[in-house]
Amino acid sequence: MNTIEWAAENGKRIHFIGIGGVMMNALALEMHRRGAVVSGTDRDDSETVAHLRECGIPVHIGHDAEAVEGADIVVRNAAIKDSSPDIVRARELGIPILERPDVLGQIMSEYGRTIAVSGTHGKSTTSGMITHVLCRSGQAPTAFIGAVLPTIGGVCCLGKNDWFVAEACEYCESFLYLKPRTALILNVEADHLDYYSGIEQIVDSFYKFAMNTPEDGEVVVNAENENAMKAAERLEGKRRVVTFGLEKGEYRAKDIVMQNGCGSYDLYRGDEKLCRINLSVPGMHNVSDSVAAAAVLISNGVGPALAAAGLESFPGMERRFQHLGTYRGAEIYDDYAHHPDELVATISTAKKIGKKRVVCLFQPHTYSRTAALLENFAEALKLCDLAVLTDIFSARETNTLGVSSEDIARLVPGAKYIPALADCRSFFEKELREGDIFIACGAGNVNEVARRLAGGCGCI
Fold it and tell me: Other C-beta atoms within 10 Å of 254: how many?
């Protein structure tokens, strides 16, 4: 019996620090459902915190030492530092401290048909695609995803069989806690350079993740991503490797047709045509993600026809090129893109819709990522017709690098730097016009501007 099973069966108290996080709140709800006494703390009040309280989980705002007193186990995410008062107090009291992915890994170990989706970007969408297909084909999976999937009405669902789908995050090598039967590697790029020393260490980490599969498991890898293949090459003779891609790989997309920005293609395995897949979500990146999802599903025994039908009805994920509404004739979108490759994919998708202007509000995420990839962000933003940059969302960091969003704006012709989100909203209320596509991009709270412009709620 692992620690989590013991806590649930014996009604022990588990305290989650950072409980408002996407995956943290899902795990908290799962442990609450299993019978553990769950409590939590978070930095700010939010809709998520309000929902947890409605479910009977007390949440304290602020990282106070007293909040952990009486807990049997403390769970934290990677953003919570050792110096946080609640962590210091937990150590003083001798309370066991688990990392968030450790809890996810312990839950995963209870299942047989386990799938972990990794990669620098595309994880949430591909995890959502796999989960949606399994739901639509009557498989009732358990899933923990990093974004809201409308099919399950949230970021997690609790199934009734042996299927388990999890998004596997590489930050701080969190995914090394997971031991899936099927490991999917979508792409491997330079990111999280506040933790990793460079791309070589990142590739090595993905190799270790792949090696966490059992000897009779499999690793599904993007044949068209150089760094992903570097990790896969080291698996030769150690694990079964299945490759996918648009043009390369065992599973491939042929005869791709883009209609209204959405892809339709023939899925091949080797020389065998398996099915025709017609997507309802736009962008070539979604074509690639759907080939990856299909490769995982079919290699796990799901029929090609069921995979195609499920992918065709996939509704997309919240904050992934999500259409929120209109403002003065401009179409308003929200997207989580916070890496240069993601920005390129999002802006390119918008341009193919064929409106007059693509207007992007970008909020960089973390100082370390901004400093390391500054020129790459600038090149990506040059693709849009008007780029506006707001202040960096600091997340877990302090600005020891002296970097600013204005540094990116200087490299992009015609770009504007508007530090405050409230001023950004005022600017776009005057700037946007009929025929524009407006996209708020970033992993922070920049989506509040898009929601307010579209007439929704928001505090900006």
Answer: 11
